[in-house]
UniProtKB/TrEMBL annotation:
Cross-referenced CDD domains: YkuD_like
Catalytic residues identified in the record: 245, 261
InterPro entries reported in the protein's UniProt record: LD-transpeptidase, LD_TPept_cat_dom, Peptidoglycan-bd-like, PGBD-like_sf, PGBDSf, Transpep_catalytic_dom
Coiled-coil boundaries: none
Keywords: Cell shape, Cell wall biogenesis/degradation, Peptidoglycan synthesis, Signal, Transferase
Entry superkingdom: Bacteria
Keyword Cell wall biogenesis/degradation applies: yes
Gene Ontology CC terms: extracellular region
Biased composition (Low complexity): 75-92
GO molecular function term, any single one: transferase activity
Name of the protein in question: Putative peptidoglycan binding protein
Length: 291
């Protein structure tokens, strides 16, 4: 009799254990132990903002289980390569400097002008091309000087490369030459260029700089303009109230212009001041586009 009771108790205990194991493994609503069931994906996203689904089998109300070594493998050294300090040219082209829409043309003009470093005329940006274009942009006040062959860089390079200094009817002495068509300025003495062509901005529509041959009649390191209430650095007057001076605005803003004066970059205004004197000959020819 005792043996029968012992067997019955063993069978009952085994049944309880089997029911408990089945509830833990199969019941998605919980195991009756008080731990919450995994939250639906939508609830987790709304509560935390995360887009990933919760880990199956891990209750959201309890502390996260410690991942096993095989569950989340450690990234290898090659999984996330370190970026190189200096971008290197590749077979598809140099990527360390932006390439503009006028790459080949700018390369051509800079090679013709010379003095900005070695570059290759092939329409593809390289480290040498980038450095040369940056030097050109810094020299002629083009902003930003990032080495990109954009519209302004193209326009300035084309005008300078297309300037023919022989078109200026310079005399035996010093002559300041102004090409209104190409918006460039240079200086000659006895037929020899003593200051190479540089950029300028002359009178806008309604205030076109007049052509002709003149003489510098007045000079002042800092001239005050009464009608426009602005200082004009390195002023050299050659025709009434018209003269050379350092620009007071961004020179390459083609939408505006002067009221007849010849605007120059700082370095060029200084150089022209150093060369000039009262009586220096000034030759103005051509016509600014749009005037």
């Amino acid at each position: 009799m005792q043996h029968v009771r012992f067997v019955a108790r063993a069978v009952a205990l085994a049944a309880v254990l089997l029911v408990g194991v089945g509830a833990c493994a199969l019941d998605p609503q919980g195991d009756g132990s008080g731990a919450a069931a995994p939250a639906p994906v939508g609830v987790t996203e709304r509560a935390s903002g995360a887009s990933a689904a919760p880990t199956p089998g891990q209750p959201t109300g309890s502390p996260p289980a410690q991942p096993s070594r095989t569950a989340t493998p450690k990234p290898s050294r090659t999984a996330t390569p370190k970026p190189s300090a200096t971008p290197k040219p590749s077979s598809s082209g140099f990527t360390g400097c932006p390439q503009g829409e006028h790459q080949r043309a700018v390369e051509t003009y800079l090679a013709r002008l010379g003095g900005f470093g070695k570059l290759t005329v092939d329409g593809r940006q390289s480290a040498a091309d980038c450095a040369a274009i940056k030097r050109f942009q810094r020299r002629y006040g083009i902003s930003p000087a990032a080495g990109r062959a954009g519209a302004t860089t193209y326009d300035v390079a084309k005008r300078l490369a297309g300037t023919d200094v022989r078109r200026c009817r310079a005399g035996a002495g010093l002559t300041f030459c102004i090409d209104l068509t190409r918006q460039t300025v240079w200086a000659m003495r006895g037929g020899t260029v003593v200051m190479g062509p540089t950029v300028t901005r002359t009178g806008m529509a309604g205030y076109a700089t007049p052509t002709g041959t003149y003489r510098v009649g007045g000079r002042n390191l800092r001239e005050w303009s009464n009608p426009y209430e602005v200082w004009l650095p390195y002023w050299q007057r050659f025709n009434g109230g018209i003269g050379f001076h350092e620009t007071t605005t961004y020179l390459h803003n083609g939408a505006i212009g002067s009221h007849g004066c010849v605007n120059l970059l700082h370095a060029d205004a200084v150089r022209l001041w150093e060369l000039g004197s009262i009586g220096t000959r000034v030759v103005v020819f051509g016509r600014r586009p749009g005037t």
